[in-house]
Structure to design on (170 residues):
């Protein structure tokens, strides 16, 4: 009888060890799964915040000369579906806002803020009436205070008369 009790005790101990091993394997698997899912969620949310949405720029005119009377400067139409505002900075020349309905042209200097879809104009004349033949314009799109992306434009004159714009990659 004592041998049977010892056998039962021995099997019970072996069974407990097996159950403990299985429980440990399950616990490790669950912990691994939790860490994997947490890391996946963190990476997904981090990559969403890092998506780049630079402003899209359209050149309504292929070329601009100062003799054109239908526009006050080289026009740039700037769009971005996610943006609430776009900051425009020019290294040289003058940024202008123009309301064709009333004909008023407002000088913005070298920095302006526009809404997506608006057209801003660049003039090769500075506020000091000096002529610039080249500028770099940087456009940065924001949604509230969150920066969505930037793009750059170079406007230059081939012959000191005709100005053309081109996108530059950053």
């Amino acid at each position: 009888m004592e041998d049977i009790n010892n056998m039962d005790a021995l099997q019970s101990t072996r069974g407990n060890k097996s159950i403990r091993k299985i429980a440990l394997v399950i616990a490790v698997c669950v912990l691994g799964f939790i860490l994997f899912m947490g890391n996946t969620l963190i990476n997904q949310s981090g990559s969403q915040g890092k998506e780049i949405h630079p402003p899209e720029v359209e050149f309504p005119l292929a070329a601009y000369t100062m003799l054109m009377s239908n526009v006050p400067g080289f026009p740039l139409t700037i769009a971005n579906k996610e943006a609430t505002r776009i900051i425009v900075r020019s290294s040289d020349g003058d940024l202008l806002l123009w309301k064709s309905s009333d004909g008023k042209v407002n000088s913005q200097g070298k920095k302006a803020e526009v809404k997506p879809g608006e057209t801003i104009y660049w003039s090769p004349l500075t506020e000091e009436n000096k002529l610039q033949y080249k500028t770099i314009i940087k456009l940065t799109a924001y949604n509230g205070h969150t920066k969505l992306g930037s793009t750059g434009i170079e406007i230059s004159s081939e012959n000191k008369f005709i100005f053309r714009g081109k996108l530059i990659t950053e």
Remarks:
- The two ends are 86 Å apart (CA to CA).
